[in-house]
């Protein structure tokens, strides 16, 4: 049995071998792509699908779910890529969609607090400002926006819950805050 090498990059035991985290991530991505291709084959050509090809998809999905649940540690290179992608996605998407996309791409566990810590409060508030503008254009009141965001467990600046006043302040400040 091989032991992990001593490098700055985290090592992951993958298929009986210790690999740098970025290589384990690449192998995981290949496994996911292969499983998805077999699934598409089964759907497009049901007459050609065999018991083996039909059975492998759910089995691989279960195994991949366990691997993803381990949340592979990020290397500094991955962390930079994650931060860059988070900023880009947050420019056009709600925070929850950004979190889902990053979890899919980086197989890491994120939540709203870690997203905000990664991109910064100003970027978070700019995203909420853009969303609030769209909601207001659709005749959603500031009070209704506050209820919606509280239901989504989004925190207001300084922590706490959204109120009608906080939403109005966000709209008036055009997402620019001194936190």
What does this protein structure show overall?
The structure is a single chain. This protein has helices at 21-44, 51-69, 76-90, 95-106, 112-119, 121-137, 142-151, 164-172, and strands spanning 11-14, 17-20. With 179 residues, it is mostly helical. A hairpin with a 2-residue loop joins strand 1 (11-14) and strand 2 (17-20). Helix 3 packs antiparallel against helix 4 and helix 7 crosses helix 8 (164-172). The relative contact order is 0.08. Mean pLDDT is 80; it is low at 1-6.
Keywords for this entry:
2 strands; mainly alpha
Show unreliable segments: 1-6
Helix content: 55-70%
Backbone CA Rg: 21 Å
Please give the order of strands in the largest beta sheet.
1-2
Specify the structural class.
mainly alpha
Strand content: under 5%
The total count of helices amounts to: 8
Distance between the termini: 51 Å
* Strand segment tally: 2
Mean of the pLDDT scores? 80
The main sheet comes to: 2 strands, antiparallel
- The shape is elongated
Topology as a string of helices (H) and strands (E): EEHHHHHHHH
Brief digest:
The chain has 179 residues and is mainly alpha-helical. It is built from 8 helices and 2 strands.
Topology:
Elements lengths: L10 E4 L2 E4 H24 L6 H19 L6 H15 L4 H12 L5 H8 L1 H17 L4 H10 L12 H9 L7
Antiparallel strand pairs: 1-2
Helix pairs in contact: 1-2, 3-4, 5-6, 7-8
């Amino acid at each position: 049995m091989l032991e992990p090498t001593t490098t700055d990059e985290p090592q992951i035991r993958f298929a009986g071998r210790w690999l740098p985290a970025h290589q384990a991530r690449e192998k995981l991505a290949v496994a996911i792509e292969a499983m998805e291709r077999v699934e598409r084959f089964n759907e497009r050509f049901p007459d050609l699908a065999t018991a083996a090809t039909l059975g492998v998809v759910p089995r691989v999905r279960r195994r991949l779910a366990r691997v993803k649940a381990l949340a592979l540690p990020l290397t500094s290179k991955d962390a930079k890529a994650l931060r860059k992608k988070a900023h880009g996605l947050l420019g056009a998407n709600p925070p929850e969609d950004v979190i889902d996309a990053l979890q899919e791409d980086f197989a890491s566990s994120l939540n709203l607090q870690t997203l905000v810590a990664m991109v910064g409060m100003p970027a978070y508030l700019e995203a909420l400002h853009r969303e609030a503008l769209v909601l207001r254009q659709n005749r959603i009141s500031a009070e209704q926006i506050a209820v919606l965001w509280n239901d989504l467990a989004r925190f207001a600046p300084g922590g706490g819950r959204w109120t009608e006043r906080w939403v109005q302040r966000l709209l008036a400040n055009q997402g620019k805050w001194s936190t």
